[in-house]
TrEMBL record:
Species of provenance: Methylobacterium frigidaeris
Gene of this entry: fabF_2
Record-linked CDD domains: KAS_I_II (cd00834)
Protein name in the entry: 3-oxoacyl-[acyl-carrier-protein] synthase 2
Residues in Ketosynthase family 3 (KS3) domain copies: 10-420
GO terms of biological process kind: fatty acid biosynthetic process
Transferase recorded as keyword: yes
GO molecular function, one term: 3-oxoacyl-[acyl-carrier-protein] synthase activity
Length: 423
């Protein structure tokens, strides 16, 4: 068997660079040390007033300079920091030798900017949509308007790293980061590129986002102490905690990576996705789309469920998501799932939304590299309806394969399988 081809004869996709930024710190080393030590990056929000808000905590990244109230600027800074680390680790210099696939938040304009636009457009009282467009296109608002166009962040990152072709911007809700990796894998397998820079980034912790998620009853309201709020799989879980950050992976055709003497950090063995049109925010009650996404990832990897050593859970800490994810895993893995270590890093960094799938891909690869499964914090009251082996302190076990789940609002389900070696 050709070691640079998978069981289906496709180019094997190797990971040669990883970069991470979360509320735990900047860089792989700091994040991994804090994560496996069970430290929390969730804290009281200080970047804007939170009086009157039901949720006043988040896993914000407060150590990277940018206007904290402009999500695209934060997203760009996080992405740049993560990509810098990943590209450097891959040993690449000059223009990046492949394409950019980037998960970015949906375009959101905060109310202060909307008001400024309306004031600029207001001439005779009422403001029409055409008035707003003219104001946005004016010289005064030209730079500001460009900042909020979907795709601008990816364009700037593409210019910064010299990626080839038109950058791909995507947003598939909370599975976006995993989708970016999937697109990079598929492009390499098709022979369209030999390398891909895959990034998930999100800097969306702002008052409007907190209010919107609160109206959906999706956020935890257990503000004190902040580090105890996120409780994936626990019986007393009451919602997720917002987080932010970015992760970047450098993917390469394994043959190319070996030829240039690159250090291979692991492989993306399988990708699976399944859409769920049941509801804008809820999962199908039979769990069918989640089950199908997990099975598709395993089939794509050419692996039997028994080959998975640990599961990096989506694990948001919302009552419904955790129940549905457990149902899906138990359906695929059967009784064995009760003894497969499963963990959710959202208990420490919060839910990084668009970035989550990429951040958790990075942590999955580090789990393989170190043979250590990070803990899930705040699992003091197990849910008897979720009979899983939830890891509560970092566990040293042999790990050669990881299933990483990402399930998003709107029925966006993406699962990835990572391995130390070809399947």
């Amino acid at each position: 068997m050709n070691r640079d081809r998978d069981a289906m004869g496709r180019p094997l996709v190797a990971v040669t660079g990883i970069g991470v930024v979360t509320s735990l710190g900047q860089g792989v080393a700091d994040n991994w040390a804090a994560l496996t030590a069970g430290h929390s990056g969730i804290h009281a929000i200080t970047r804007f007033p939170t009086e009157g808000l039901r949720t006043r905590i988040a896993g914000t990244v407060d150590f990277i300079a940018a206007d904290p109230m402009v999500a695209p600027l934060l997203s760009e800074r996080f992405a740049e920091a993560a990509a810098d680390e990943a590209v450097a680790q891959a040993g690449l210099s000059g223009d990046f030798p492949g394409a950019l696939f980037m998960a970015v938040p949906p375009v959101e304009i905060e109310w202060p900017q909307r008001q400024a636009l309306a004031e600029a457009a207001a001439t005779n009282g009422d403001v029409t949509y055409s008035d707003l467009l003219r104001a946005a296109a004016s010289r005064r608002f030209d730079d500001w308007h460009d900042l909020f166009i979907f795709g601008t962040v990816a364009d700037r990152i593409a210019d910064r790293f010299g990626t080839r072709g038109s950058p791909i911007s995507l947003s598939t809700a909370c599975s976006s980061g995993a989708t970016a990796i999937q697109l990079g894998v598929e492009a390499i397998r098709r022979g369209e590129v030999e390398a891909a820079l895959c990034i998930g980034t999100d800097g969306s912790v702002n008052p409007e986002s907190l209010i919107r998620f609160s109206l959906l009853s999706a956020l935890s309201t257990q503000n004190d102490p902040p580090e105890a709020a996120s409780k994936p799989f626990a019986k007393n879980r009451d919602g997720f905690v917002m987080g932010e950050g970015a992760a970047a992976l450098v993917l390469e055709d394994a043959a190319r990576a070996r030829a240039r003497g690159a250090r291979i950090l692991g492989y993306v063995l399988g990708c699976g996705e399944k859409g769920d049109g049941f509801h804008r925010t809820r999962s199908s009650p039979d769990g069918a789309p989640i089950i199908a996404a997990i099975r598709a990832a395993l089939d794509d990897a050419g692996l039997h469920p028994d080959r998975i050593d640990t599961v990096n859970a989506h694990g948001t800490g919302t009552p419904e998501n955790d129940k549905m994810e457990a149902m899906g895993c138990l359906a695929v893995f059967g009784e064995r799932m009760r003894s497969v270590p499963i963990s959710s890093n959202k208990s420490m960094i919060g839910h990084t939304l668009t970035a989550a799938g990429a951040v958790e891909a990075a942590f999955s690869l580090l789990t393989i590299a170190h043979g250590r499964v990070p803990p899930t914090l705040n699992y003091a009251v197990p849910d008897p309806g979720i009979p899983l082996d939830v890891v509560t302190t970092a566990r040293d076990v042999p790990v050669t394969t990881v299933l990483s789940n990402s399930f998003g609002f709107g029925g966006q389900n993406t699962c990835l399988v990572f391995g130390a070696e070809p399947a």
